[in-house]
Amino acid sequence: MSITAQTPMQDLEARLSPGALVTDRDIIDSYAVDRALFCPAGQALALVRARTVDDVAAVMVFATEHRIPVVTQGARTGLSGAANAVDGCLLLNVAGMDEILEIDAVNQTCRVQPGVINQDLKTVLAEHGLSYPPDPGSVAISTIGGNVATNAGGMCCVKYGVTKDYVRAMTVVLADGTVTKLGRQTAKGVAGLDLAALFVGSEGTLGTIVEVTLALKPALPSPITAVGMFPDTESAGRTVTEFMGSGASPSLLELLDGPTVKMVNAYGDFGLPDDVGALLLVQSNAKGAGAVEELEAFQRVAEANGSSEVFVSDDPADSEMLVAARRAVGPAMEKYAHTRGGGELIDDVCVPRSALGEFFEKLRLIDARFDVEVATAGHAGDGNMHPSVVFDAGDEDQVSQAQEAFAAIMQLGLDLGGTITGEHGVGYLKREWLSNELDAGALLMHQQIKDAIDPSGILNPGKMLG
Amino acid sequence: MSITAQTPMQDLEARLSPGALVTDRDIIDSYAVDRALFCPAGQALALVRARTVDDVAAVMVFATEHRIPVVTQGARTGLSGAANAVDGCLLLNVAGMDEILEIDAVNQTCRVQPGVINQDLKTVLAEHGLSYPPDPGSVAISTIGGNVATNAGGMCCVKYGVTKDYVRAMTVVLADGTVTKLGRQTAKGVAGLDLAALFVGSEGTLGTIVEVTLALKPALPSPITAVGMFPDTESAGRTVTEFMGSGASPSLLELLDGPTVKMVNAYGDFGLPDDVGALLLVQSNAKGAGAVEELEAFQRVAEANGSSEVFVSDDPADSEMLVAARRAVGPAMEKYAHTRGGGELIDDVCVPRSALGEFFEKLRLIDARFDVEVATAGHAGDGNMHPSVVFDAGDEDQVSQAQEAFAAIMQLGLDLGGTITGEHGVGYLKREWLSNELDAGALLMHQQIKDAIDPSGILNPGKMLG
Q: Where's the FAD-binding PCMH-type domain (chains A, B) (predicted)?
């Protein structure tokens, strides 16, 4: 009888579902990054494609025993590098835990595993006459777990709020393998600290989300649509300020600047004019005559602020085309950036809506100051703008200019009373910037909470908190 | 020249605004309790009526130096004993910090000090065409700071959510005197952990809230009103389940059981029938024809579930009378309880809306099991019910029975998948029960966070976490 010493990886494999542990270097490396640029990835020790809560707990126990970092991932569609590998880590991918566990039509909630794709959930809910509004740009490819871990937003937020507004409860696995339930199943509840809220947007630094209970809404009413043409972004921004300040409640209010519109038109025919300074895309799904009244009010405000034309339509085809045009911004910019050397840095500042006019004035100065192109789209109704810096990624000077422009945009957001990230998160990309937004007391509290809940510091180290 | 040694209280007084420190025993003792029953109060060392953020910080620094507990209070209208004195504490009362600092109509936000009375804020906002929906029963007398510290709810929640849905940012003073800003001014933001959310509902255990930025809504539309009469609470509960499960969005949906209606009628004439098993009060402020359609749908569901009569009115006077009747429940019960020996324990369970029928069936059994009276009102649309146990406070056996009935009601809430507290908080009253609702992992995390943020344990010790 001979006893063969087990390697740590064999030990881990024995604790997991068959096939969950991946040690093939090529496969591991193919999981090393999300969609952020300029975010280095370390070399992971191994990849675990978790199938069960037990798999996740086993990874945590093993990682704690061996003091190995754990980076939790879903579909890796994030834009801040939060899901990137760090050296020597276990990549804990939960995208395969993708079951919708329960749809409760009476209580208008559902329970899902973290790997469920947002759009897949929407599709199934629609069959029950229900909806889950949050709709990040990645809606077709990102997971609910990732959406919760980053508090994802989208186009619906201007009327329907962000992910955190829909999270009732969650099950998380902590660094030591403890499985715990946070939050509540009921419409209201104040028993203890709101730990579920603390985990929303925690970017894998406090634990791994293995189940979520979401509040739902009845199927949303169909919207009607308007497109406003503006000579420049400043007048479009001032229109948003005035329209939203009047108490309007559009179901969508998006802005595309002139360069973005050109990119979208080069990408596909969505019926947008080519020669505008900026476009505002607006929808209202108010009941009865409310929607028409709301878009008429928009038209008045837009024209008073210099809009050359506002086109209103109640044709559902126009509404779909409008959303398709907005959703095409991502791929259209990517295609355009490819022709300019492949560099694209998507920023994500959010400013008070009152500051949108000034934001665009000063963004113009940033654009002029650096030898890169800035094209802006965003969730204007929330003041959440995504200026993209397009540059030649093969040109060292261009890269440096792009990074400076990117930083200048964040500083502009802060200067106007806003935030460095409205919905994409901090991750690796903006970790050095967090201390520019938060004061010393808040930063210290972040570290205290991190140290308390993850005392070994193994959960997504170097992300968010730097 | 002689140097007189300063006492610690003289030292504290010198650090505070003139007159802020109160050492008169009678005055101190008059601040020792909130409105909870069966929650003992300790003897406080002194009372500080803070005027400024500096006062609050000075109290914290002094308390940390001397390891003295600090109990923060507002208007002391809470129902869980969270604001009660503990032995040797400083009572830190911030009710006098009651300025509305800014109303920003364009961004639809306001900044307020913690002592602003909820109704006073509503009144001022109405002049600007704005509203702050959360409306706890104590709306006329409770403070925004207290509302935030307990995540207060109310009648509006069924459509407009709870306090946490309106908190954008806050300034807090930590145990060591650090003043820090949490949250964001913008509509969206994900820079770091959501520490503002962690402080909402933290009941003074993590720090003292000295400023809050609230999101606002445009003035809410006027509602129309319905009252449904039911033979028993079960049929009323099933009506709520079915009506809410249909995706209805009433702006108010309250239940009063038969004994409660009798108490209200004995208190004043609000036009309610005397001989009913239960009443549902419903309002809709949907736009256009939506409100009438919604209440017609309610009527159909109510009649299908056994309602003998549903009265619908679009007369604003009826609407006001209805709300007045609901708001009269508190004083009416108090008056009735006074005739029965003065004992009244108000419970606050919240169950899934699907469980309301079963909740009332089993509540009836509890009522029968104990030699006390149970009268129930509550925010039925959210499943948040307030069964009140009425008893003779001078009779030892009655007191014991009342406490057992109170506990049985919480256990019923938990058995049905609900929570021990929907909106009143844990405080002292339910601290022993928190461990019945939360699992070991969540409880440990509570303690870890408490220890991390308040390492000396001076902030409201013995509350919430026991």
A: 40-219
Are B261 and B279 within 8 A, CB to CB?
yes
Q: Which residue's structure tokens are 């479009």?
A: A236
What CA–CA distances, in Å, run from A332 to A228, B238, B340, B464? 21, 52, 74, 53
Per-residue model confidence (pLDDT) at position A5: 78
* Pairwise CB contact (< 8 Å): A164 & B197: yes
Q: Which segments of A36-143 does DSSP mark as H helices, in order?
A: 53-66, 118-127
DSSP string covering B122-169, please? Answer: HHHHHHTTEE-----TTTTT-BHHHHHHHT---STHHHH--GGGGEEE
Q: Which residues of A touch B425 (CB under 8 A)?
A: 190
How far is Cα B75 from Cα B208, in angstroms, rounded to an integer?
14
B223, B291 contact by CB (below 8 A) = yes
Is the Cβ pair B188, A439 closer than 8 Å? Answer: no
- C-alpha A9/C-alpha A12 separation (Å) is 5
- Residue B3 is predicted with a pLDDT of 63
Both tokens of residue B356?
A: 């309301």
Distance from C-alpha of B349 to C-alpha of B419, rounded to nearest angstrom:
6
Contacts of A129 in chain B (CB under 8 A): 247
Q: Which of B170, B150, B215, B206 is nearest to A191 (CA)?
A: B150
Say which residue the tokens 């002029």 belong to.
A368
Whole-angstrom Cα distance, residue A61 to residue A15?
Answer: 10
Q: What does the alpha-carbon distance between residue B187 and residue A351 come to, in Å, rounded to a whole number?
A: 8
Average pLDDT taken over every residue of chain B: 96
Q: Could you give all domains of chain A from N- to C-terminal order, each with its CATH number?
A: 8-93 (3.30.43.10), 100-218 (3.30.465.10), 224-415 (3.40.462.40)
Residue B5 pLDDT level (bands cut at 50, 70, 90) = confident
CA distances from A85 to A70, A93, A206, B451 (A): 9, 11, 16, 31
Confidence of residue B347 (pLDDT cuts 50, 70, 90): very high
Rounded to whole angstroms, how far apart are CA atoms B100 and B116?
A: 7
Instruction: Outline where A136-232 has alpha helix (H).
Output: 144-150, 157-160, 195-199
Chain B interface mutation, best of A301, A445, A459, A465, highest count of B Cβ atoms under 10 Å: A445
pLDDT at A3 over 90: no
Best residue of B445, B448, B460 to probe chain A, by most A CBs closer than 10 Å: B445
The token pair that represents B258 in the structure block: 């038969």
Yes or no, beta carbons of A286 and B287 under 8 Å apart: yes
Distances (CA, A) of B292 to A51, B108, B271, B297, B382: 50, 29, 22, 9, 21
Indicate the helix (H) or strand (E) that contains B183: strand B179-183
CA distances from B351 to A184, B11, B241, B386, B415 (A): 10, 50, 11, 11, 9
A154 versus A38: the higher-pLDDT residue is: A154
Cα separations in angstroms, A448 against A202, A281, A443: 14, 43, 9
b/e map A211-227, b = 16+ CB within 10 Å? bbbbbbeeeeeebbbbb
Could you tell me if A172 and A208 are in contact, meaning their C-beta atoms sit under 8 angstroms apart?
yes
CB B394 within 8 A of CB B340: no
Q: At residue B290, does pLDDT exceed 70?
A: yes
Residues in Cβ contact with A303 at an 8 Å cutoff, skipping those fewer than 6 apart: A310
Contacts of B123 (CB under 8 A, 6+ apart): none
> Can you say whether the dihedral through the CA atoms of B260, B265, B271, B276 is positive or negative?
positive
**Nearest residue to B233 via CA among B370, B337, B380, B411:** B380
Task: Report the DSSP beta bridge partners of residue A281.
Answer: A227, A254
Q: Strand A90-93 vs strand A70-73: parallel, antiparallel, or unpaired?
A: parallel
